[in-house]
Amino acid sequence: MDATPEQRTYARLAGVMFLANYVLQGAGDSVTIISRRTATFEETARYATESALLWRVSLAEVGASWIVIGVLAFALYAVLESVNKRLAQLALCMRLGASFVGAASLMFRVAQARLYQASATAGLFTTEQLRTLVAVSQRAAGAGFTVSMMFLGLSSTIFFVLFLRSRYLPAALARFGIVSSPLLVAAAVAMFVFPERTNELKLMGVPGLLVEVATAFWLLFKGLQPRAAAEARG
Known about the structure:
The protein is 82% helix and 0% strand.
């Protein structure tokens, strides 16, 4: 299939959005989750209170990453609509679903930040009460994230099937995406059912991360492959 200039523009936009999502998500989570893994409740509450502005900026970055996923969904749809419109529409809806669910789950992380800051007010809640409320909000936010991963995995599977059909990407990369994306769905379902295994199950998402990063760089620097059009003319 011969790609139009508009499709090539949207392909590069998709590449930027792939990378922007990971940068924003990583920047936000590094402050609020990753660097707090070994901290006690009291230490995290103190940090969230003393660094309230940084904490809010980090949560805003996470929110922006879900908006980026929505833009990415439309960019991929614009690239692949001509391959199969119905499948492209389905993939668009799935990825927008991930964007909406993920953004909505952010409210629980905002509530969690307020609970941390409430610990600075003596007599408002006991430490045990705050710890319980934070755990509940954390579980709710995690459930929203897990459901969004189900939507993302289904969307990616369809988009990579369309990339394989169009031959806009190298066949090996598209096939890797078709194999790795369902793993994300399986991991998300398992995390939802067995939340105590979340850290181990997250490793199943690594292949999907790698294929999306590889796709991002391919779309940015190589663009859509012209081979299919050249073979058709030949």
